[in-house]
Amino acid sequence: MHDTKINRKDFEQRVLLQHTGKSSDEHRDEFNGILHDKLMLGQNGIQCKWYITITVTAINFEAANTRFLNYEAYLNLCMQKLGTEMLPLKANERVRILCDVFRGVNTDLTFITRDEFARRAEKMLCCPDYFEFKKDYFMFNDKYARCLYFQKLPTSSIADTIFKDILETNQSLIITKNIEFVDTADAIELVRRQITNMKQEEITKTKAAANAARGAFIDPIEGTELAENKAQAYELLEDLQGRNQKMTLCQFIIMITADSHEELEQNTETLRIIARKNQILLSSAPYRQEQALASVLPLGNSNSSDKERNLQVRRT
To answer: Collapsing DSSP states into helix, strand and coil, what is residue 312?
Structure first.
């Protein structure tokens, strides 16, 4: 989810009225001025783009391409049920996305040929002049940026309205949700192991409470967070075994940009307030901003096995 400003040239070509060489051009200019003023106010000048990036593991390119085609057909069917369509991105369009992030939506970008891609010339067109990573933020060109991730999630579920609230802050930002499926057998084993650990913790606490009460039996577990986690674990195990549900490892990352460090801090606090309302704790990923940046871009760098190129923070 990329929330960014509208490209001026694209806006003028698609929306503004063009001159016809007649006396009515004066009225066209007046109408275009009204549209331009409306564009500069509030969220009218902001557009939200949605991207779905799929990564697969295969023995060669042909096998991977076959799986991509199958996924594309299935996703197109799902999007048609929602009344929308999904378009595959070409190489030049992917470079345009990175250029919008690092150089601005109004930057002119020439068409890149196959030979230029072969010698990796596209990096000179879409990458910033420099990166400087600090403890909990980074800088590129004349921008300040920070990556935040969901460190603590609510006990039940995340309300989908949180993303609507974030987008309504009228900031230039990227919201990325990386999803990785866990094999069903591995997921069942993981849940059972967690249940065993919670049972052992329950026994330990019960014995400690009984000893403190000099032999009187006391159940200190009922109504505590441990009891809630245990009940949720049993429910998840039933979903995996009896309802054919899948376990996923999820990673929520938000990248925000600003023109100054003060503005960056204000934008960060705005997001923290929204997160606290939804019982979510946001972390600024200290000393891991570079890995967070690699994970937030729609490039497929979210594989948990690649520990050097992505942020190692995942929640079931």
So the answer is: coil
* Rg for the chain, CA atoms, rounded: 25
Spell out the residues 6+ positions from residue 49 whose beta carbon is closer than 8 angstroms to its own: 1, 2, 4
The structure tokens 């949180």 sit at 162
Residue 133 binned pLDDT confidence (cut-offs 50, 70, 90): very high
Which residues sit opposite 252 in a β-bridge? 177
Q: Domain spans of the chain?
A: 90-127, 134-316
Q: Which residue has the tokens 């603590």?
A: 152
3-state secondary structure of 88: coil
| 313 and 248 Cβ atoms separated by less than 8 Å | no
Kindly state the tokens that stand for 106: 């109004």
Question: Model pTM?
Answer: 0.77
User: What is the rounded distance in angstroms from the CA atom of residue 39 to the CA atom of residue 132?
Assistant: 33
The string of pLDDT tens digits covering residues 111-123 is 889 898 888 888 8
